[in-house]
Amino acid sequence: MRDLIVRSYIRPKLPSMRWTDDLDIRFVQVVEFLGGERSATPKKILSHMGVRDLTISHVKSHLQMYRKKKEAESIKARRMIHEMKRRQSQQYLQIYERATQFIQNHQRLQLDNTEKITSSLGSSNKSLYQSSRVGFNENRDNDVVVAGGGVIGEEGLSLELTLGHKY
């Protein structure tokens, strides 16, 4: 069997670096200048930043964290947009349902009113017809009746029924 060689951890010669706000702002500016976190490479970032004591490994690790942060923000934004669209769809559905109910109720009321008016007119027409028949039967023998100088016959009775005034 071959002896497996285990690499020991070699501590870097330079101490770890603390990214200040100013340094991070400069980093983000350079990344955006280079076309975003996907197209910017650590070497290009390092050369454009021009900061002394900044190594490629510092830039690599910071770029990796920056990419993860951007990805998390992107996922969060997509979820928010999806949730907003879902809520908006629910609101549109509720508005549609309310409008449909309103229209149905309005149509129902119109139908009820039409039925009431029709039944009311039907009974009025029936009573009007009956009263006209009574008046007609009383005057049936007399086709022409002279009252106060006027002539009332079938024509006068028709006017009486039409206008609702006695002649």
TrEMBL record:
GO CC aspect terms: nucleus
Subcellular location field: Nucleus
The organism's place on the tree of life at top rank: Eukaryota
SUPFAM superfamilies: Homeodomain-like
Lineage of the organism: Eukaryota, Viridiplantae, Streptophyta, Embryophyta, Tracheophyta
Annotated GO MF terms: DNA binding; DNA-binding transcription factor activity
Domain HTH myb-type: 11-71
Principal cellular location given in the protein's record: nucleus
Keyword Transcription carried by entry: yes
Name of the protein this chain belongs to: HTH myb-type domain-containing protein
Record flagged with keyword Ligase: no
Any matching Pfam family: Myb_DNA-binding
Keywords per UniProt: Nucleus, Transcription, Transcription regulation
PANTHER family in the record: HOMEODOMAIN-LIKE SUPERFAMILY PROTEIN-RELATED (PTHR31314:SF84), MYB FAMILY TRANSCRIPTION FACTOR PHL7-LIKE (PTHR31314)
